[in-house]
Task: structure prediction
Amino acid sequence: MLFSRDTSPEARRILIEILRKKTPAEKLAMVDEAIAFGRELTMTGLRMRNPGASASELEVLYLEHMLGQDLARNILAATRAGRTSLLADPDARRRG
Result:
């Protein structure tokens, strides 16, 4: 939701006008900042719920939270195996 319910029509009009004047690069930067802020909020919550967790444990918890356990485990296994592409099928070359 772009606006809260208590945003007045005039404030809404002004905000839309400001956003329309932004360049695509500025809009992308805003999205990037919002994503970084969301990640920090998530990491803060994970740290609070897991005070003894190391940085690498928190990264695993973050991946599991964002992607689900199965996908997070697949990504971590591929990373540990040194695969350069997470999408590449490791058995594809053998099947030829």
